[in-house]
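Obj.: predict assembly geometry.
Materials: sequence records (below).
Method: joint structure prediction, all chains together.
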Amino acid sequence: MPGPLASFILYFGTAFELAFLVCSIRRRSFFRYFFLNLYILLVLASSFGRHFFLSRYGLGSDEYRYAYFYTDALLTLALYMALISLYSNVFGELQFGKYVRLTAVLLLLGTALFSYGVVAQSTERLSTTFAYELSQNLYFVGLVLTYLLWGAVVKLRESRTRLVQFVLALGIYFSAYAASYALVNLASKYSIVNSLGPVFSCLLPLSWTYTMWRHSEDARLVPARLVAVPR
Amino acid sequence: MSGKLTALVLALGILVCSMGLKTALSSNHSSGTVLTANGPDPMPLPPPKR
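Observations (raw structure tokens):
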């Protein structure tokens, strides 16, 4: 069974996810940011599924391991779709929607092929290895895509506060993931570094909830002010 | 350059950048690192490689 720190993260994370859904519905923005809500809904559903396997079979069991990594691959795909939906929001007025979708599909196919190429040599448990290889590769693709999207937000002078803050929250989330990935490589002997992923996954719905609750859809800001300090 | 070709080049460029970043961060431990960040559930150990 998980320790007190893992339980603490689990309960707070679930509370933040529920809070985001409630805020989204109350502010009548569920369908406007449908893919963000879908991602959080899937996280909640997978949390219940994982909890079932965790309580029934334990943390070290194969059942929990497979449930965890397969749902993780599914959730990463959902997060990728959420990110592409933010792209569609930003580029929606420029008639680039078709090319954004085409690039997203090609990129997803390319990542899947690359992941398959990496794990193809391992004949044992290919599907599980593929699930977490694909998931991790998509995290890094998401990181690069988020930075590109932030560049587009600044260049196009996007001013919708919610959209800007959703993108910034994703940027911090993916950057923190990349940093903790490097930290796991450098200090894998410390078990605390393995808790960093779940901690960051709590902070993402928290920041989205704050954005949804604090700002209305009509709120505007100038992102150029976030980048350049006036002298 | 047509729009479709641009999309293909862009997708390949992003893929190369992403995998390059992953390799750079993996340093010399590229074979065994598994870290996930979807959901607050405790992460199990990955399946052993044979």
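Conclusions so far: The mean pLDDT of chain A is 86.
To do: check interface contacts against the pulldown list.
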